[in-house]
Each structure stands twice: as structure tokens, then as C-alpha cells.
Amino acid sequence: MTFAHTTAARVRRINPSPSTAAAQRVRELKSQGLVIHDLTVGEPDFDTPAHVKAAAVRAIEAGETKYTPVNGTPRLRAAIIEKLRSRHGLHYTDAQITVGGGAKQVIFLALMATLDEGDEVVVPAPYWVSYPDMVLANDGTPVIVPCSEADGFKLTPGALRGALTDRTRWVVLNTPGNPTGAAYTPDELRALAEVLLDHPRVRVLTDEIYDEIWYGDGRSRSLAAVEPRLADRVFLTNGVSKTYAMTGWRIGYGAGPADLVSAVNTLQSQMSSCPSSVSQAAAAAALTGPQDFVEETVRTYRARRDTTAKLVNDIPHLSCTPPAGGFYLLVDCADAIGLHTPDGERIADDEQFARYLLDSRQVAVIHGSAYGAPGYFRISFATSADVLTEACAGIAAACAALTPATPA
Predict the structure, then answer these.
(1) Residue 61: φ, ψ to 5°
(2) How many Cβ atoms from other residues are within 10 Å of residue 224's Cβ?
(3) Residues with Cβ < 8 Å from 61, sequence gap 6 or more?
(4) Cβ atoms within 10 A of the Cβ of 312, count?
(5) Cα separation of 110 and 262, whole Å?
(6) Under a CB-based contact definition with an 8 Å cutoff, are residues 120 and 127 in contact?
(7) Residue 89, Cβ neighbours under 10 Å: how many?
(8) What are phi and psi of 120, to 5 degrees?
(9) Are 293 and 280 in contact (CB under 8 A)?
């Protein structure tokens, strides 16, 4: 007996993460002895705070190495509830909190718990690479809504209204966003909320993983706090990965309607039983302990943002808008498309441009098409100032070498 396929249709519908693939390519080149200026990595280059690591050690020594409740330890859930209250003025009960192996898992489980075949999910573009594939993996249909740089890479009320149908189940709102760093103002959130209030069956998945890596005045705002009438339809996701440099600890959380949280917990009970007990102890310490680390790292990110944005905007054929949050620049390289390299190769698209930077100057970036942003590429400035300066010098040299026509 032979089989036409060895994998399920849901696997064949999706693609490996482009950012993961780019990081793997960088590792391969480094293993060959090449010096790569890596601007692909979407994680802080800082170490986890010492008091957080110490909490993990104490947990191990105290024997906190067994199964925990599916939805996380009581201490961690209490810390999440207090964090959302103090930061956003949001009040959640214990039954409205779920904890998972990273915010990515929590988002995936929320979609798994709610989507049936043909259900639609509105995904503003540029988007984090995983959103469309997560929807496809769970039998849904991603409805991609392009958001121009002229609109700040943000979803407008008119574009949202035009994307909603009877099949819409979710709208994804990532603020501050990856790859743009764009963040919605309270007025912009209220304007989107007015549209959503006319569609009571539509839920909103807010991905707020970068909420504290923020360069604006005051604090970044959450839709659930800005428009309380939507609170029972918002599923807020966050985690400790970006804010506290804990990407490898794999702790994320969700807050929202108790029925949805219960469904997510049921799925998790059959998938991983619970998140890591030791990581949960560390996450609770991060949320409840000193926050100096956050303030210090955000100051560093801000300085890197300002320096890198200026360097990029001084490069011919390139431009970028400094982000309001996060640690990425989405760089417009449309003017370089169609130009020729010194080897006579025509730059056909942003993916080829990114490959040209890597091959010619050993600068690794991720092409914008991976994020639904053709004609752009993404830089992560979660790396040292020296690497950023050297990388931008390499990018400038690569751009200076481009010509309008194939060299004779």
C-alpha cells in the first residue's frame, strides 16, 4: 500500500517560519567561519535579570519541579492579574487567566478553540509571520488587510469595516507590532472599537507582547481598557519573553472571557499538561519583582532605534519610519528593486535584496514579503550598537554598488 501524503493537510497548508529559517541560515554561515552581522533575531540580547534566575534556582531547590495546574500556578496567575490591573486598569478573575508555553502557544490554542473550516480571521499587514499560518493550521481563512506606511502601518476603521463578513470570527491586533513597531493611540483604538461594536460575533485577539518596550508618552494602551464595552470579546495575550529577556523560558499568558479560557485550558490539558513549573516561578518573579531592568533596557533600545533609523535613512534607496515600540525597523527598499548588483544580477524583489545583503556584505535581514510587506525588509536592533553600526555600513556599501543597468 502506498500513501499520497505522509502529513496531514493542515501541515501542507502552512510554511516554516521565515524568521526561524533566516536564523538557521545565519547559524550555518557562522559555523563555516564567516562573520555575519545578524539583524534577524527577534529576541533581546540582554541576559535574564539576576533576581529572576535566582527565583528559578530557589524553585528547583524547593522541589517545585512537578506538574502544576493546567492554567498555571496560583502565584503566577495572581501576578498576571495584578500586572493587568496596575498597568491597564483591567480587572480579571482567576477563571479568566490562562498560562502557556509562550504567547505563541496561547494564540495558537485560542484559534484552535474557536475556528471551524471557512471561518475568517482579519490579519492586518504587515503582520507577524506566524498569524496567517496559525489560522490556516486551524482550518481558518486569513483575510489579509494591507496597511500602508502612510497610515502608520495601522488598520483604519474603513479598512476594518470592508474586511468584516458573516464568516469573520477574529480580528488580530498586534500593538506595538512586529515587524513595524507601530502602536495604536487611544483615539485610533476607539475608532476601531466603534466598527467592532456593530459586529457582536467578532472577537479581537490583542497581541501585546511588546507593550513595555515602548517609546511614546505614558504607556501603550490596550483595546480592552480603552473600550470596556469590548472587554468580553477581547482575548489579550502577552508574556515575559520580550520585556524580561526570557525567550527561552517559554511563558506566555492570555486573559479574556472565561468560556474561551476554559476551552484553551482543555486543549492544553491534552497537549502539554502544563507549562514548565520552574519557568513559571521565574515568570512570577519577573512580574512582581523590581522593574529597573525594563526601564534600563528600553532606554538602550531607544538609543539604538534612533541611531539605526538615522543611519538607514542616510542610505540611498532606503528609508524607514522610527517605531513607537518593539525593537524592529521596517525598511522601505522599493527604490532598490530593479537595480543591478556589481555581478550584473537584477534585484527582482525584497527577498533577493535581502539575499544580496547577506551574500555581498554578510548582513542578515529578513525580507518584508515574509510579513506581508513586499518592497521592505526588517532589521532587529536587539543587538549591540557596534553590530548595528557595522551592519548599516555594510548595507550602505551594498546599496552604493547598485546601478540602474547591467554593467558592460
Answers:
(1) -65, -25
(2) 27
(3) none
(4) 21
(5) 10
(6) no
(7) 11
(8) -110, 145
(9) no
What pLDDT score was predicted for residue 18? 75
Q: What is the pLDDT of residue 1?
A: 46
Closest by CA to 387, choosing from 40, 99, 10, is 40
Contact 387, 379 (CB under 8 A): no
pLDDT (0 to 100) of residue 368:
98
Spans in the chain with pLDDT lower than 70: 1-5, 406-408
pTM above 0.85, yes or no: yes
Helices 385-400 and 292-313 meet at what angle, rounded to 10? 20
Residues 6+ apart with CB under 8 A from 56: 278, 279, 281, 282, 285
Dist. CA 281–CA 122, nearest whole Å: 35
- All three cell numbers of 399: 546599496
Helices 103-114 and 258-271 sit at what angle, rounded to 10 degrees? 110
Which pLDDT does position 382 carry in this prediction?
97
CB 328 within 8 A of CB 179: yes
**Closest of 93, 88, 111, 108 to residue 258, by C-alpha:** 93
Asked whether the beta carbons of 109 and 70 are under 8 A apart, the reply is: no
